[in-house]
Structure prediction request, 493 residues.
Amino acid sequence: MTSDFDCDLLVVGLGPVGAVLAALAQSQGVSVIVVERSPTPFPLPRAAVFDHEIMRIFQMIGVAERIAPLCRAPERYQFHTACGQVLLDFENAKVGPFGWAETYALHQPAVEEVLRNRLYELGVRVQTGVAFERLVQDPDGVTVGVTDNGISREIRARYLVGCDGSWSPVREALGITLDDYNFDEPWLVLDTIIDEPGDLPIVCQQICDPKRPVTHMAMSGKRFRWEFMIKPGETAEDMLDEARIRELLAPWNCADRIEIERKAVYRFHALVAKRWRDGRVLLAGDAAHQMPPFAGQGMCSGIRDSANLAWKIAAIVRGDAEDAVLDSYQQEREPHVRAIIGTAIAMGQIVCLLDETAAAERNRDMLARKSSGAQDVSVLYPDLTGGHLTDTACAGALFPQPVSEDGERLDSLFGLDAVLIARSAIDPAGTSVRTFSLDSPELRKFAEPIDVWLTKAGADAVLIRPDRHVFGTGETAALLGAWTELAHRKIAA
Ligand SMILES: Cc1cc2nc3c(=O)[nH]c(=O)nc-3n(C[C@H](O)[C@H](O)[C@H](O)COP(=O)(O)OP(=O)(O)OC[C@H]3O[C@@H](n4cnc5c(N)ncnc54)[C@H](O)[C@@H]3O)c2cc1C
Prediction:
Protein backbone atom coordinates (compact mmCIF):
# COMPACT_ATOMS: atom_id res chain seq x y z
CA MET A 1 0.00 0.00 0.00
CA THR A 2 1.25 3.49 -0.81
CA SER A 3 2.67 5.62 1.94
CA ASP A 4 0.19 8.52 1.75
CA PHE A 5 -2.27 6.33 3.62
CA ASP A 6 -2.25 6.38 7.41
CA CYS A 7 -3.79 2.90 7.37
CA ASP A 8 -5.48 0.38 5.13
CA LEU A 9 -8.60 0.29 7.30
CA LEU A 10 -10.07 2.93 9.56
CA VAL A 11 -12.61 1.50 12.01
CA VAL A 12 -14.93 4.11 13.51
CA GLY A 13 -16.28 2.99 16.90
CA LEU A 14 -14.79 0.63 19.45
CA GLY A 15 -17.80 -1.35 20.59
CA PRO A 16 -17.63 -5.15 20.31
CA VAL A 17 -18.15 -5.05 16.53
CA GLY A 18 -15.36 -2.55 15.84
CA ALA A 19 -13.00 -4.37 18.21
CA VAL A 20 -13.53 -7.74 16.52
CA LEU A 21 -13.20 -6.26 13.03
CA ALA A 22 -9.97 -4.47 13.96
CA ALA A 23 -8.47 -7.58 15.58
CA LEU A 24 -9.36 -9.88 12.68
CA ALA A 25 -8.19 -7.46 10.00
CA GLN A 26 -4.89 -6.61 11.72
CA SER A 27 -4.25 -10.34 12.31
CA GLN A 28 -4.57 -10.83 8.55
CA GLY A 29 -1.98 -8.21 7.65
CA VAL A 30 -4.24 -5.15 7.27
CA SER A 31 -2.92 -2.02 9.01
CA VAL A 32 -5.77 -0.73 11.17
CA ILE A 33 -6.55 2.46 13.07
CA VAL A 34 -9.58 2.54 15.36
CA VAL A 35 -11.08 5.85 16.47
CA GLU A 36 -13.46 5.90 19.42
CA ARG A 37 -15.27 9.04 20.52
CA SER A 38 -15.44 8.10 24.18
CA PRO A 39 -12.20 8.39 26.18
CA THR A 40 -13.22 5.43 28.38
CA PRO A 41 -14.93 2.08 27.68
CA PHE A 42 -18.71 1.96 28.15
CA PRO A 43 -18.92 0.42 31.64
CA LEU A 44 -22.41 -1.09 31.57
CA PRO A 45 -23.69 -4.31 30.02
CA ARG A 46 -26.08 -4.40 27.10
CA ALA A 47 -25.77 -7.86 25.51
CA ALA A 48 -26.70 -10.65 27.94
CA VAL A 49 -25.83 -13.67 25.76
CA PHE A 50 -23.88 -14.64 22.65
CA ASP A 51 -23.69 -17.85 20.67
CA HIS A 52 -21.19 -20.52 19.57
CA GLU A 53 -20.41 -18.77 16.30
CA ILE A 54 -19.23 -15.71 18.19
CA MET A 55 -17.07 -17.80 20.52
CA ARG A 56 -15.55 -19.36 17.39
CA ILE A 57 -14.77 -15.86 16.08
CA PHE A 58 -13.21 -15.01 19.47
CA GLN A 59 -11.16 -18.18 18.98
CA MET A 60 -9.96 -16.83 15.60
CA ILE A 61 -8.56 -13.71 17.24
CA GLY A 62 -6.97 -15.71 20.04
CA VAL A 63 -9.18 -14.72 22.98
CA ALA A 64 -11.73 -17.55 23.37
CA GLU A 65 -9.73 -19.15 26.17
CA ARG A 66 -9.70 -15.81 28.02
CA ILE A 67 -13.37 -15.08 27.43
CA ALA A 68 -14.79 -18.55 28.24
CA PRO A 69 -13.97 -18.33 31.99
CA LEU A 70 -15.78 -14.97 32.16
CA CYS A 71 -18.99 -16.50 30.85
CA ARG A 72 -21.63 -19.00 31.96
CA ALA A 73 -23.22 -21.54 29.65
CA PRO A 74 -26.90 -21.54 30.71
CA GLU A 75 -28.78 -24.86 30.71
CA ARG A 76 -31.64 -23.55 28.59
CA TYR A 77 -33.61 -20.47 27.48
CA GLN A 78 -37.32 -20.72 28.17
CA PHE A 79 -40.51 -18.75 27.58
CA HIS A 80 -43.04 -19.32 30.38
CA THR A 81 -46.69 -18.51 30.90
CA ALA A 82 -47.58 -16.52 34.03
CA CYS A 83 -48.14 -19.80 35.87
CA GLY A 84 -44.91 -21.41 34.74
CA GLN A 85 -45.93 -23.59 31.78
CA VAL A 86 -43.18 -23.73 29.17
CA LEU A 87 -44.17 -22.23 25.81
CA LEU A 88 -40.72 -22.31 24.17
CA ASP A 89 -37.70 -24.26 25.34
CA PHE A 90 -34.22 -23.93 23.82
CA GLU A 91 -31.73 -26.37 25.24
CA ASN A 92 -28.10 -25.29 25.35
CA ALA A 93 -25.77 -27.98 24.01
CA LYS A 94 -22.60 -27.90 26.16
CA VAL A 95 -20.40 -28.53 23.12
CA GLY A 96 -22.24 -28.35 19.84
CA PRO A 97 -21.10 -29.23 16.31
CA PHE A 98 -19.18 -25.98 15.99
CA GLY A 99 -16.83 -26.64 18.89
CA TRP A 100 -18.39 -24.46 21.58
CA ALA A 101 -21.54 -24.36 23.70
CA GLU A 102 -24.63 -23.12 21.89
CA THR A 103 -25.02 -20.05 24.16
CA TYR A 104 -22.94 -18.10 26.69
CA ALA A 105 -24.15 -15.53 29.21
CA LEU A 106 -21.67 -12.68 29.50
CA HIS A 107 -20.82 -9.45 31.23
CA GLN A 108 -20.27 -7.29 28.15
CA PRO A 109 -17.75 -4.83 29.68
CA ALA A 110 -15.51 -7.73 30.83
CA VAL A 111 -15.55 -9.26 27.34
CA GLU A 112 -14.89 -5.88 25.72
CA GLU A 113 -11.90 -5.36 28.00
CA VAL A 114 -10.37 -8.64 26.75
CA LEU A 115 -10.99 -7.53 23.16
CA ARG A 116 -9.35 -4.15 23.75
CA ASN A 117 -6.30 -5.73 25.36
CA ARG A 118 -5.99 -8.02 22.34
CA LEU A 119 -5.98 -4.99 20.02
CA TYR A 120 -2.98 -3.56 21.89
CA GLU A 121 -1.17 -6.94 21.69
CA LEU A 122 -1.79 -7.06 17.94
CA GLY A 123 -0.46 -3.54 17.43
CA VAL A 124 -3.74 -1.99 16.32
CA ARG A 125 -3.53 1.79 16.68
CA VAL A 126 -6.41 2.55 19.04
CA GLN A 127 -7.20 6.24 19.36
CA THR A 128 -9.73 7.06 22.08
CA GLY A 129 -11.31 10.46 22.63
CA VAL A 130 -11.26 10.86 18.82
CA ALA A 131 -14.59 11.49 17.08
CA PHE A 132 -15.42 10.93 13.43
CA GLU A 133 -16.82 14.16 11.94
CA ARG A 134 -16.89 13.87 8.14
CA LEU A 135 -15.52 11.98 5.16
CA VAL A 136 -14.62 12.55 1.53
CA GLN A 137 -14.09 9.65 -0.87
CA ASP A 138 -11.97 9.49 -4.02
CA PRO A 139 -11.17 6.51 -6.26
CA ASP A 140 -8.23 5.40 -4.09
CA GLY A 141 -9.36 6.01 -0.55
CA VAL A 142 -11.25 7.96 2.11
CA THR A 143 -10.12 11.15 3.85
CA VAL A 144 -11.72 11.43 7.25
CA GLY A 145 -12.02 14.52 9.43
CA VAL A 146 -11.88 13.78 13.16
CA THR A 147 -11.87 15.83 16.34
CA ASP A 148 -9.08 14.72 18.61
CA ASN A 149 -9.65 16.18 22.07
CA GLY A 150 -11.01 19.37 20.53
CA ILE A 151 -8.44 19.61 17.71
CA SER A 152 -9.40 18.84 14.09
CA ARG A 153 -7.18 16.60 12.01
CA GLU A 154 -7.43 14.16 9.11
CA ILE A 155 -6.87 10.43 8.70
CA ARG A 156 -6.45 8.87 5.25
CA ALA A 157 -7.45 5.24 4.78
CA ARG A 158 -8.07 2.79 1.93
CA TYR A 159 -11.33 1.69 3.53
CA LEU A 160 -13.53 2.85 6.40
CA VAL A 161 -16.00 0.74 8.33
CA GLY A 162 -18.55 2.52 10.50
CA CYS A 163 -19.02 0.40 13.62
CA ASP A 164 -20.35 3.47 15.36
CA GLY A 165 -23.56 2.12 16.82
CA SER A 166 -27.25 2.79 16.35
CA TRP A 167 -26.95 6.56 15.80
CA SER A 168 -23.99 6.02 13.40
CA PRO A 169 -22.55 9.39 12.35
CA VAL A 170 -20.89 7.51 9.44
CA ARG A 171 -24.30 6.30 8.21
CA GLU A 172 -25.60 9.87 8.61
CA ALA A 173 -22.67 11.28 6.62
CA LEU A 174 -23.52 8.90 3.77
CA GLY A 175 -27.21 9.84 3.90
CA ILE A 176 -28.23 6.18 4.27
CA THR A 177 -31.74 5.70 5.60
CA LEU A 178 -33.20 2.82 7.64
CA ASP A 179 -35.89 0.30 6.80
CA ASP A 180 -38.17 0.21 9.86
CA TYR A 181 -40.08 -2.98 10.83
CA ASN A 182 -42.35 -0.82 13.04
CA PHE A 183 -41.64 -2.94 16.09
CA ASP A 184 -41.40 -0.45 18.93
CA GLU A 185 -41.71 -1.60 22.54
CA PRO A 186 -40.45 0.33 25.59
CA TRP A 187 -38.85 -1.75 28.37
CA LEU A 188 -37.17 -0.98 31.68
CA VAL A 189 -33.77 -2.71 31.88
CA LEU A 190 -32.21 -3.36 35.30
CA ASP A 191 -28.67 -4.63 35.72
CA THR A 192 -27.97 -5.83 39.23
CA ILE A 193 -25.31 -7.47 41.37
CA ILE A 194 -26.37 -9.98 44.01
CA ASP A 195 -23.67 -11.34 46.33
CA GLU A 196 -25.89 -14.02 47.82
CA PRO A 197 -28.27 -15.32 45.11
CA GLY A 198 -29.88 -17.75 47.60
CA ASP A 199 -32.80 -19.43 45.86
CA LEU A 200 -32.85 -16.94 42.98
CA PRO A 201 -33.29 -19.07 39.81
CA ILE A 202 -30.10 -19.30 37.72
CA VAL A 203 -31.98 -19.22 34.43
CA CYS A 204 -32.53 -17.27 31.21
CA GLN A 205 -36.26 -16.85 30.83
CA GLN A 206 -39.07 -14.77 29.41
CA ILE A 207 -42.17 -14.63 31.57
CA CYS A 208 -45.04 -14.09 29.14
CA ASP A 209 -47.45 -12.67 31.70
CA PRO A 210 -49.94 -10.27 30.08
CA LYS A 211 -50.13 -8.38 33.41
CA ARG A 212 -46.41 -7.55 33.00
CA PRO A 213 -44.07 -9.33 30.56
CA VAL A 214 -40.65 -9.80 32.20
CA THR A 215 -37.20 -11.04 31.14
CA HIS A 216 -35.04 -12.60 33.86
CA MET A 217 -31.43 -13.50 33.07
CA ALA A 218 -28.75 -14.89 35.31
CA MET A 219 -25.75 -13.43 33.54
CA SER A 220 -22.20 -14.33 34.51
CA GLY A 221 -20.91 -14.28 38.10
CA LYS A 222 -23.11 -12.34 40.49
CA ARG A 223 -24.86 -10.34 37.80
CA PHE A 224 -28.59 -10.66 37.14
CA ARG A 225 -30.73 -8.77 34.65
CA TRP A 226 -34.42 -8.01 34.75
CA GLU A 227 -36.33 -6.36 31.94
CA PHE A 228 -39.91 -5.19 32.53
CA MET A 229 -42.21 -4.19 29.70
CA ILE A 230 -43.62 -0.69 30.09
CA LYS A 231 -47.36 -0.76 29.56
CA PRO A 232 -49.51 1.89 27.81
CA GLY A 233 -50.11 4.78 30.20
CA GLU A 234 -46.92 4.18 32.19
CA THR A 235 -44.05 6.61 31.80
CA ALA A 236 -40.30 6.02 31.84
CA GLU A 237 -40.05 8.30 34.91
CA ASP A 238 -42.59 6.19 36.86
CA MET A 239 -40.75 2.99 36.01
CA LEU A 240 -37.32 4.35 36.96
CA ASP A 241 -38.56 5.36 40.41
CA GLU A 242 -36.68 3.46 43.16
CA ALA A 243 -39.82 2.41 45.06
CA ARG A 244 -41.45 1.23 41.85
CA ILE A 245 -38.39 -0.88 41.02
CA ARG A 246 -38.49 -2.53 44.47
CA GLU A 247 -42.18 -3.30 43.86
CA LEU A 248 -41.40 -4.87 40.47
CA LEU A 249 -38.66 -7.03 42.00
CA ALA A 250 -40.79 -8.13 44.97
CA PRO A 251 -41.73 -11.57 43.49
CA TRP A 252 -38.02 -12.52 43.49
CA ASN A 253 -37.68 -11.71 47.15
CA CYS A 254 -34.17 -10.29 46.81
CA ALA A 255 -34.68 -6.57 47.42
CA ASP A 256 -32.60 -6.64 50.63
CA ARG A 257 -29.43 -8.01 48.94
CA ILE A 258 -29.53 -6.40 45.53
CA GLU A 259 -27.28 -3.68 44.18
CA ILE A 260 -28.74 -1.90 41.16
CA GLU A 261 -25.85 -1.21 38.81
CA ARG A 262 -27.91 0.42 36.10
CA LYS A 263 -31.55 1.24 35.37
CA ALA A 264 -32.48 2.45 31.91
CA VAL A 265 -35.47 2.59 29.61
CA TYR A 266 -34.86 1.27 26.09
CA ARG A 267 -37.19 1.20 23.10
CA PHE A 268 -36.71 -2.17 21.44
CA HIS A 269 -37.00 -1.83 17.68
CA ALA A 270 -35.98 -3.43 14.40
CA LEU A 271 -34.20 -1.43 11.72
CA VAL A 272 -32.00 -2.29 8.73
CA ALA A 273 -29.89 0.21 6.79
CA LYS A 274 -30.92 0.38 3.14
CA ARG A 275 -27.29 0.29 1.94
CA TRP A 276 -24.36 -1.22 3.82
CA ARG A 277 -21.72 -0.02 1.38
CA ASP A 278 -20.98 3.28 -0.30
CA GLY A 279 -17.75 3.02 -2.30
CA ARG A 280 -14.93 2.52 0.17
CA VAL A 281 -17.13 3.00 3.22
CA LEU A 282 -19.10 0.17 4.84
CA LEU A 283 -21.40 -0.17 7.84
CA ALA A 284 -21.34 -2.97 10.41
CA GLY A 285 -23.11 -3.88 13.65
CA ASP A 286 -25.79 -1.60 15.09
CA ALA A 287 -24.89 1.00 12.45
CA ALA A 288 -26.24 -1.42 9.80
CA HIS A 289 -29.05 -3.16 11.73
CA GLN A 290 -30.79 -3.24 15.09
CA MET A 291 -33.19 -5.77 16.53
CA PRO A 292 -35.17 -6.43 19.71
CA PRO A 293 -33.08 -8.44 22.21
CA PHE A 294 -35.41 -11.45 22.60
CA ALA A 295 -33.20 -13.71 20.46
CA GLY A 296 -29.96 -12.35 22.04
CA GLN A 297 -28.55 -11.69 18.57
CA GLY A 298 -27.87 -7.95 18.06
CA MET A 299 -24.19 -8.02 18.99
CA CYS A 300 -23.81 -11.53 17.51
CA SER A 301 -25.07 -10.29 14.15
CA GLY A 302 -22.65 -7.38 14.25
CA ILE A 303 -19.71 -9.64 15.09
CA ARG A 304 -20.69 -11.87 12.15
CA ASP A 305 -20.53 -8.74 9.96
CA SER A 306 -16.96 -8.21 11.18
CA ALA A 307 -15.95 -11.79 10.39
CA ASN A 308 -17.51 -11.48 6.93
CA LEU A 309 -15.76 -8.18 6.15
CA ALA A 310 -12.30 -8.71 7.65
CA TRP A 311 -11.04 -11.43 5.31
CA LYS A 312 -12.46 -9.70 2.25
CA ILE A 313 -10.70 -6.43 3.08
CA ALA A 314 -7.51 -8.39 3.85
CA ALA A 315 -7.69 -10.21 0.48
CA ILE A 316 -8.06 -6.87 -1.35
CA VAL A 317 -5.18 -5.29 0.57
CA ARG A 318 -2.93 -8.29 -0.24
CA GLY A 319 -3.91 -8.12 -3.91
CA ASP A 320 -5.67 -11.50 -3.76
CA ALA A 321 -9.10 -10.06 -4.60
CA GLU A 322 -10.72 -7.20 -6.46
CA ASP A 323 -12.62 -4.49 -4.61
CA ALA A 324 -15.87 -5.95 -6.06
CA VAL A 325 -15.64 -8.76 -3.51
CA LEU A 326 -17.01 -6.25 -0.97
CA ASP A 327 -20.32 -6.14 -2.84
CA SER A 328 -20.89 -9.65 -1.55
CA TYR A 329 -20.91 -8.34 2.05
CA GLN A 330 -24.48 -7.00 2.10
CA GLN A 331 -25.66 -9.73 -0.32
CA GLU A 332 -24.61 -12.36 2.21
CA ARG A 333 -25.25 -10.65 5.50
CA GLU A 334 -28.55 -8.82 4.95
CA PRO A 335 -30.78 -11.90 4.36
CA HIS A 336 -29.15 -13.58 7.39
CA VAL A 337 -29.78 -10.54 9.59
CA ARG A 338 -33.34 -10.19 8.33
CA ALA A 339 -34.05 -13.85 9.14
CA ILE A 340 -32.79 -13.30 12.69
CA ILE A 341 -34.81 -10.09 13.02
CA GLY A 342 -37.83 -12.20 12.00
CA THR A 343 -37.07 -14.61 14.85
CA ALA A 344 -36.49 -11.80 17.37
CA ILE A 345 -39.78 -10.13 16.40
CA ALA A 346 -41.67 -13.46 16.53
CA MET A 347 -40.29 -13.99 20.04
CA GLY A 348 -41.14 -10.39 20.96
CA GLN A 349 -44.71 -10.80 19.73
CA ILE A 350 -45.12 -13.85 21.97
CA VAL A 351 -43.70 -12.03 24.99
CA CYS A 352 -45.23 -8.58 24.54
CA LEU A 353 -48.89 -9.65 24.50
CA LEU A 354 -50.88 -7.58 27.03
CA ASP A 355 -54.43 -8.64 26.17
CA GLU A 356 -55.48 -11.33 28.67
CA THR A 357 -57.84 -13.15 26.26
CA ALA A 358 -55.30 -13.14 23.43
CA ALA A 359 -52.60 -14.36 25.86
CA ALA A 360 -54.82 -17.22 27.04
CA GLU A 361 -55.38 -18.23 23.41
CA ARG A 362 -51.66 -17.98 22.71
CA ASN A 363 -50.91 -20.26 25.66
CA ARG A 364 -53.52 -22.81 24.64
CA ASP A 365 -52.38 -22.93 20.99
CA MET A 366 -48.65 -22.99 21.72
CA LEU A 367 -48.96 -25.64 24.43
CA ALA A 368 -51.05 -27.82 22.09
CA ARG A 369 -48.48 -27.53 19.31
CA LYS A 370 -45.65 -28.15 21.78
CA SER A 371 -47.31 -31.30 23.16
CA SER A 372 -47.35 -32.67 19.61
CA GLY A 373 -43.59 -32.08 19.40
CA ALA A 374 -43.57 -28.80 17.43
CA GLN A 375 -41.99 -25.57 18.68
CA ASP A 376 -43.29 -22.27 17.30
CA VAL A 377 -39.96 -20.47 16.91
CA SER A 378 -36.71 -21.92 15.57
CA VAL A 379 -33.26 -20.56 16.35
CA LEU A 380 -31.70 -22.46 13.45
CA TYR A 381 -30.51 -19.52 11.39
CA PRO A 382 -30.08 -19.80 7.61
CA ASP A 383 -26.91 -20.48 5.67
CA LEU A 384 -25.41 -17.65 3.64
CA THR A 385 -26.71 -17.43 0.08
CA GLY A 386 -25.63 -15.51 -3.03
CA GLY A 387 -22.50 -13.41 -2.68
CA HIS A 388 -19.04 -14.93 -2.67
CA LEU A 389 -20.06 -18.60 -2.85
CA THR A 390 -20.27 -21.34 -5.45
CA ASP A 391 -23.51 -22.94 -6.48
CA THR A 392 -22.64 -26.32 -4.96
CA ALA A 393 -23.95 -28.52 -2.15
CA CYS A 394 -23.58 -26.98 1.35
CA ALA A 395 -22.11 -23.69 0.03
CA GLY A 396 -22.84 -20.95 2.59
CA ALA A 397 -23.20 -23.36 5.53
CA LEU A 398 -20.98 -22.96 8.54
CA PHE A 399 -18.38 -25.72 8.46
CA PRO A 400 -18.43 -27.81 11.67
CA GLN A 401 -15.61 -27.59 14.15
CA PRO A 402 -15.00 -31.04 15.64
CA VAL A 403 -13.16 -31.23 18.96
CA SER A 404 -10.62 -34.05 19.29
CA GLU A 405 -10.41 -36.37 22.29
CA ASP A 406 -7.48 -34.36 23.62
CA GLY A 407 -9.54 -31.15 23.44
CA GLU A 408 -8.06 -29.62 20.28
CA ARG A 409 -10.43 -27.76 17.99
CA LEU A 410 -10.24 -28.12 14.22
CA ASP A 411 -9.81 -24.40 13.45
CA SER A 412 -6.58 -24.33 15.46
CA LEU A 413 -4.97 -26.00 12.40
CA PHE A 414 -6.24 -23.39 10.01
CA GLY A 415 -5.26 -20.00 11.39
CA LEU A 416 -7.11 -17.31 9.46
CA ASP A 417 -6.59 -18.79 5.99
CA ALA A 418 -9.02 -20.18 3.48
CA VAL A 419 -8.69 -23.96 3.61
CA LEU A 420 -9.26 -26.79 1.17
CA ILE A 421 -9.74 -30.32 2.52
CA ALA A 422 -9.79 -33.18 0.01
CA ARG A 423 -10.03 -36.94 0.28
CA SER A 424 -6.93 -37.40 -1.88
CA ALA A 425 -3.50 -35.74 -1.85
CA ILE A 426 -3.30 -32.18 -3.21
CA ASP A 427 -0.49 -30.25 -4.85
CA PRO A 428 -0.59 -26.92 -2.96
CA ALA A 429 1.56 -25.06 -5.54
CA GLY A 430 0.20 -21.78 -6.89
CA THR A 431 -2.66 -21.26 -4.45
CA SER A 432 -3.08 -18.97 -1.45
CA VAL A 433 -5.52 -21.51 0.00
CA ARG A 434 -4.13 -23.87 2.67
CA THR A 435 -4.62 -27.44 1.58
CA PHE A 436 -5.05 -30.62 3.60
CA SER A 437 -5.77 -34.15 2.51
CA LEU A 438 -7.97 -36.23 4.77
CA ASP A 439 -5.13 -38.64 5.53
CA SER A 440 -2.55 -35.94 6.35
CA PRO A 441 -1.05 -36.40 9.85
CA GLU A 442 -2.28 -32.98 11.12
CA LEU A 443 -5.85 -33.80 10.20
CA ARG A 444 -5.84 -37.39 11.43
CA LYS A 445 -7.69 -36.78 14.69
CA PHE A 446 -10.48 -34.90 12.88
CA ALA A 447 -10.62 -37.14 9.80
CA GLU A 448 -13.65 -39.20 10.81
CA PRO A 449 -16.20 -36.37 11.28
CA ILE A 450 -14.88 -34.58 8.17
CA ASP A 451 -15.20 -37.80 6.18
CA VAL A 452 -18.81 -38.14 7.35
CA TRP A 453 -19.48 -34.50 6.40
CA LEU A 454 -17.97 -34.93 2.90
CA THR A 455 -20.01 -38.09 2.36
CA LYS A 456 -23.22 -36.27 3.31
CA ALA A 457 -22.29 -33.43 0.92
CA GLY A 458 -21.56 -36.03 -1.79
CA ALA A 459 -18.17 -34.39 -2.42
CA ASP A 460 -14.47 -35.24 -2.64
CA ALA A 461 -13.39 -31.84 -1.37
CA VAL A 462 -14.58 -28.75 0.47
CA LEU A 463 -13.21 -25.21 0.31
CA ILE A 464 -13.82 -23.27 3.54
CA ARG A 465 -13.56 -19.47 3.67
CA PRO A 466 -11.60 -17.71 6.41
CA ASP A 467 -14.91 -16.92 8.17
CA ARG A 468 -15.48 -20.72 8.23
CA HIS A 469 -18.43 -20.67 5.87
CA VAL A 470 -18.26 -23.26 3.11
CA PHE A 471 -17.28 -21.64 -0.21
CA GLY A 472 -18.12 -24.80 -2.09
CA THR A 473 -17.89 -28.55 -2.36
CA GLY A 474 -16.92 -30.77 -5.26
CA GLU A 475 -13.60 -31.53 -6.83
CA THR A 476 -10.28 -29.87 -5.88
CA ALA A 477 -9.25 -28.21 -9.15
CA ALA A 478 -12.71 -26.83 -9.81
CA LEU A 479 -12.94 -25.38 -6.29
CA LEU A 480 -9.52 -23.72 -6.41
CA GLY A 481 -10.31 -22.35 -9.88
CA ALA A 482 -13.63 -20.91 -8.72
CA TRP A 483 -11.97 -19.36 -5.62
CA THR A 484 -9.45 -17.44 -7.75
CA GLU A 485 -11.92 -16.54 -10.46
CA LEU A 486 -14.56 -15.16 -8.13
CA ALA A 487 -12.00 -13.12 -6.18
CA HIS A 488 -10.75 -11.47 -9.36
CA ARG A 489 -14.10 -10.69 -10.88
CA LYS A 490 -14.35 -6.93 -11.39
CA ILE A 491 -18.09 -6.86 -10.69
CA ALA A 492 -19.48 -9.20 -8.06
CA ALA A 493 -21.77 -11.95 -9.35
C1 LIG B 1 -31.09 -4.21 26.70
C2 LIG B 1 -30.27 -4.81 25.60
C3 LIG B 1 -30.02 -6.17 25.59
C4 LIG B 1 -29.26 -6.73 24.58
N1 LIG B 1 -29.00 -8.07 24.62
C5 LIG B 1 -28.24 -8.63 23.66
C6 LIG B 1 -27.88 -10.00 23.74
O1 LIG B 1 -28.25 -10.70 24.68
N2 LIG B 1 -27.10 -10.52 22.75
C7 LIG B 1 -26.65 -9.77 21.70
O2 LIG B 1 -25.95 -10.31 20.84
N3 LIG B 1 -26.95 -8.45 21.62
C8 LIG B 1 -27.73 -7.86 22.56
N4 LIG B 1 -27.99 -6.52 22.53
C9 LIG B 1 -27.49 -5.71 21.40
C10 LIG B 1 -26.01 -5.33 21.57
O3 LIG B 1 -25.79 -4.74 22.81
C11 LIG B 1 -25.60 -4.40 20.45
O4 LIG B 1 -26.03 -4.93 19.21
C12 LIG B 1 -24.09 -4.22 20.40
O5 LIG B 1 -23.59 -3.70 21.60
C13 LIG B 1 -23.73 -3.29 19.24
O6 LIG B 1 -22.35 -3.23 19.13
P1 LIG B 1 -21.68 -2.19 18.13
O7 LIG B 1 -20.21 -2.38 18.30
O8 LIG B 1 -22.29 -2.30 16.77
O9 LIG B 1 -22.14 -0.76 18.66
P2 LIG B 1 -21.81 -0.05 20.06
O10 LIG B 1 -21.51 -1.03 21.10
O11 LIG B 1 -22.93 0.91 20.28
O12 LIG B 1 -20.47 0.73 19.77
C14 LIG B 1 -20.44 1.87 18.94
C15 LIG B 1 -19.24 2.70 19.36
O13 LIG B 1 -19.09 3.78 18.42
C16 LIG B 1 -18.69 4.93 19.14
N5 LIG B 1 -18.98 6.12 18.34
C17 LIG B 1 -20.20 6.67 18.09
N6 LIG B 1 -20.06 7.78 17.35
C18 LIG B 1 -18.72 7.93 17.12
C19 LIG B 1 -17.95 8.90 16.43
N7 LIG B 1 -18.52 9.98 15.82
N8 LIG B 1 -16.61 8.76 16.37
C20 LIG B 1 -16.00 7.71 16.99
N9 LIG B 1 -16.69 6.78 17.70
C21 LIG B 1 -18.04 6.88 17.75
C22 LIG B 1 -19.49 4.85 20.43
O14 LIG B 1 -18.92 5.65 21.45
C23 LIG B 1 -19.42 3.36 20.73
O15 LIG B 1 -18.34 3.03 21.56
C24 LIG B 1 -28.75 -5.93 23.53
C25 LIG B 1 -28.99 -4.55 23.54
C26 LIG B 1 -29.74 -3.99 24.56
C27 LIG B 1 -29.95 -2.53 24.55
